[in-house]
Specification:
It is rod-shaped, with a radius of gyration of 19 Å. With 84 residues, it is mainly alpha-helical. The longest helix is centred in the last third of the chain and has 40 residues.
Length: 84
């Protein structure tokens, strides 16, 4: 089970990097018109960063909840019922 969490952590690192890159690229594409009209301000950057933290926190909670449930179900239920 410990080895499974290590693999899951490694996958989380890669998926969080992908999430970060996709989030910031989509934010720039989506809010390009807004950036042109109002310019890039410190308040705007702070607001974007705050939204990033909210989405990343939600991504982290969902990821670990799903992965933990799958690992626990596999090791506690599936391994016990497996006939060797």
């Amino acid at each position: 089970m410990k080895n499974s969490f290590k693999k899951t952590l490694k996958l989380f690192k890669y998926s969080s990097i992908i999430f970060t890159v996709v989030f910031w690229i989509s934010l720039i594409i989506d809010d390009y018109v807004l950036f042109e009209k109002r310019g890039v301000t410190l308040e705007g950057i702070g607001l974007c960063f705050l939204w990033f933290l909210v989405y990343f926190f939600a991504f982290t909670i969902y990821y670990w909840a799903i992965c933990t449930a799958i690992i626990v179900i596999y090791f506690k239920v599936m391994k016990r019922t497996k006939i060797s």
